[in-house]
Protein 1
Amino acid sequence: MATGKNSDGKPAHPFGREEDVAVSQLFVCFCNNVSLGQWEQARACVEQLHQCRDRTPCDIQDVLKAIAEHPCDLRSGVVSVPTPHHLSWMCITEYERLQTQEKLPTDIYQDTEFRL
């Protein structure tokens, strides 16, 4: 999220919007870490993003569900996430950990289990 520039070209402090900017940066951090296959760093962001879901660009549950449904759209092959299907399984696990009323469709579970 852009915070503007001072007259000397340095980034301006987002006075009064610090929390919104921090949540936005945390969401960007989550997305970057997922795309790089750094699951543990991405996972560390999930709970806070879930708590601040009214200030994020999109609900973290929707993001986890989308990744679980379409894991091949993201980079994989690193040690911590060797295949897209491992990433799907990790997203399902994290989605369930959020303890919400909404459940993922059973076909996502079955497909991921079959591919692992």
Protein 2
Amino acid sequence: KKGSAVLPAPPPPAAASSELLAEAAKQVAQLEGLVPSYPQLTLNGPRNLWILKPGELSRGRGVVTMDSLTDISRFFGGWFTVQKYQENPLLIERGNEPPTKHDLRQHVLVERWEPLRVWIASEFYVRFASQPYDFTDLSPGAHITNTCVGKQLTGQGGMDLQWSTPEYREHLTRQFGSDVVSSHIVPQIQEIVKTSIACLREAMKQDHLGHAYENIGYDFAVSDDLKVWLIEANEMPALDYDSPATERTIGSALRDTVRVLLEEPTPSDGGFLTLLMDEPAMEPVPASADADLAVHGVGYAMSADGSHLLRSSAEPARQLDRNISVKDFLDKIQHRKAREAARKEARLKRMESCTRLVLSRISQNPRRSLSCGTLDKRPPEEQESMNGQAAAASASQGSEPGSKFSKSQMYSTLGKSAKAGYLTRLDPASAN
């Protein structure tokens, strides 16, 4: 009522017309028709979120989530990876806690690149975000699943931020009514690993001559329709024991890495690492005197004064085909070569550091988090004994800080460690 007058009731909402329903059905059908040619269509959502990752940082440092082109453009020109954010993640409810985001860390061992031989761990471990998932909150705790980020935000260890594969399988079996990990998730992970390794093979075999191995940590996201998406592949994955899940997965992977590299027989249970790819060496392209290997482009000619490259083609010039300075052209080539040399040197240093870390872990088996926290529950007398044995092994192999490992030294150290029984301490069953 307004004063003494009675206002009329609002009219009922008009029923949707048949034309409107038909148009909506038509648009839905058009979107569904895009799925085969646009596999990432389901990842897009109403927020248009993007994730930015610094190229030279690790452990989730500097990763931000944005939905504004103005904010994202501030990072143009820097060494950042920009990816479309997955807006339909599969959320996990752990007990009475709100749903949180998660990802999967899968360890892969490339025994050699030529001929190609790749092993994949039979289990992965799950990493959870430290805060409940919320689209309206762009803070790192809700969207970044890196365990180190969760530790810093919560001030606690990683015990509650990680699951093993059996725990993950049991939860999804209750949620979907069947073992979707074995039927849906694992096959997709294996196919993505095969495809990415095939893409890397030609480039990586140039930097890994001979019997050189590579340990790769793949990060995968799972959407609510049980599709697996590759986030990134880490050349030097973390080998920290943050929780029983990582101790189970990483410890078993390290033990089987030694078995594979030393060419020991496969155990009766098949081992923790299973053979994924075993392909012969690629046949070299036969040389032919009749082959014309010249590259014919749009056509450039030197200017009269020798300072510029001029287009000699009659085709209309595009924006990127303008006349360029010879000096700029040569500077770009030199810059590219210098950048490739720097990347190769950095990769070699990372490989040497990774080898030293693996040998140290095999010799000592310290239950410690090298980057964010410690987890060592052994008695003090056992720690002192193990440290003395590890120091003697390091001294006998010349593995002082700053020294370089040869292949013979590496195999000798691995063999002595195996005979001394150090490797059995990496077995979760015996450790428990």
Protein 3
Amino acid sequence: QFIGSWKPYSDPNYNWETDPFLDTNHDLFKVARQMVRLKTTCDALIFGNIYFRMTGSKNGDPYAFSRLSDKQEILTIVNPGLKSIPITKLVVDHYLNSTPGVQYINIFNKTQVASVIVENGISYLQFPSNFVIN
């Protein structure tokens, strides 16, 4: 039906919600929608600075970063590789995480909980013993 370029955003009658090629029941669409909603409701994700917590030395290695506001830290762990990787603990901001036992919850799996620990004046997020990132 279409030949050449198409710019739906320039069509005043275009409504993405009724686009027959957009499957709003697809898992990818649902996750993307959740991420957008989270991004627009969380100060650390809207205004926060970024701090890398873990980086790999080669392509495919996992990495982790935090977004920090003056009241909140959001930790993101990404595994672009094909192997599951165990993680025991990661450094987090001591000013925001100086109370041991404070819990962080995985937004993709709310049964996974990590807890703040403090060792020698450094705050860490301690993951459960069987925690892996896929």
